[in-house]
Specification:
Blueprint lengths: L1 E3 L5 E3 L5 E3 L12 E7 L2 E9 L6 E5 L1 H4 L9 H7 L7 E8 L8 E2 L5 E4 L4 E4 L11 E2 L7
Antiparallel strand pairs: 1-2, 3-4, 4-5, 5-6, 6-7, 7-8, 7-9, 8-11, 9-10
Length: about 140
């Protein structure tokens, strides 16, 4: 299938590259299908691109790569929705707000994206923990 993207133009993707967000993403509840796209020359950051709306795309990264002290527990509703059975079933990413200079960019640690690797379902989970915030500076505590 072909999709129009925000950063990569018109591309071909396979159905197997689609991640289903059954409840959408907060603020984008109607967007249910996304794909993860590589950023050429960068192995830390990726694009979470809507499969239906070109303008809906987020720069994402593995928060554990950027913030060494990051940790949280997955809530029961998320475990049930995604059918998570063991920690190896998931991948965690977080949305960045990219700023200039790049060191001024932030990562949303309060709302991680949880991807179930086996059934290709995902959810953005809002944490009830104020230890981490929505705009955590990536210039502190990580390597990129």
């Amino acid at each position: 299938m072909q999709i129009q993207t925000k950063f990569h133009g018109l591309i071909d993707i396979q159905q197997s590259q689609i991640w289903e967000f059954p409840k959408g993403i907060p603020g984008f509840e109607d967007e249910k299908e996304f794909t993860l796209l590589e950023i050429e020359g960068n192995n830390i950051f990726r694009v979470l691109q809507s499969a239906t709306t070109a303008e809906v795309a987020f720069i994402v990264a593995n928060p554990y790569t950027l913030i060494k002290e990051y940790s949280f527990d997955i809530d029961e509703p998320t475990i049930e929705l995604l059918k998570i059975r063991q920690p190896e079933d998931i991948m965690v990413l977080a949305v960045l707000s990219v700023n200039q200079p790049f060191d001024a960019s932030t990562i949303n640690l309060q709302a991680p994206l949880i991807f179930q690797l086996h059934n290709r379902k995902a959810k953005q989970m809002i944490l009830n923990d104020n230890h981490f915030n929505v705009r955590h500076p990536i210039g502190k505590g990580g390597t990129y």
